[in-house]
Amino acid sequence: MSGRQGIIVGISGASGAAIGMRIVEVLADNPHYAVHLVVSPAAERTLSEEVGSDALARLRALAFRHHLHSDIGAAIASGSYPVAGMIVAPCSIRTLSAIAWGQLDNLLTRAADVQLKERRRLVLLVRESPLHLGHLRSMLQATEIGAIIAPPMPAFYLRPQSLDEVIDQIAARAINLLDLTKLRAPAKVWSGQGSEGG
């Protein structure tokens, strides 16, 4: 990776594929990071429907490496492969539940589990509403084993003027949760001021 720090970005089939795409765009724009991309089959469809028919091709071009969802033998499936952490954006309830309860039958969930066992940061942008008790229990379980649950909530106090601004804020917030400032900060990070109140 020529000195670049690896970061895994997983995109699952929940609505909100543009957030995952923006995260990849921001990280790929910084020469200090190398994006390892994993896209689920359901996410391929969501990307096409929500972002455009060329979205997956654009993502693959941006990533340092695109790994097949089925390739559980990929380098990022091993704890010995050094990365800074992983973001799943958006994270479907199916993917959340699989991570929470150790159902590691594909590369996305396997790579996520590796982050947890290696005590690296795993950020899950869980995209679902409303939530039933089963969803909440999966979130609790994932949190107890070390994941960061970060639903893609807009920062309304910043008064976003467009959907792009909302996506940018959510993407930057997710990247910040990896605590990359200990390495080198991404080129484009949100540093908004304000409070959501109590």
UniProtKB/TrEMBL annotation:
InterPro entries for the chain: Flavin_trans-like, Flavoprotein, UbiX-like
Domain Flavoprotein: 7-170
Recorded GO MF terms: flavin prenyltransferase activity; lyase activity
Residues binding FMN, per UniProt: 13-15, 40, 92-95, 127
UniProt-annotated binding residues for dimethylallyl phosphate: 157, 173
Enzyme class: transferase
Pfam families: Flavoprotein
Reaction(s) catalysed by this chain's protein: dimethylallyl phosphate + FMNH2 = prenylated FMNH2 + phosphate
Keywords of the record: Flavoprotein, FMN, Lyase, Prenyltransferase, Transferase
Enzyme Commission (EC) number: 2.5.1.129
Function recorded in the entry: Flavin prenyltransferase that catalyzes the synthesis of the prenylated FMN cofactor (prenyl-FMN) for 4-hydroxy-3-polyprenylbenzoic acid decarboxylase UbiD. The prenyltransferase is metal-independent and links a dimethylallyl moiety from dimethylallyl monophosphate (DMAP) to the flavin N5 and C6 atoms of FMN.
Family label: Belongs to the UbiX/PAD1 family.
Protein name (database record): Flavin prenyltransferase UbiX
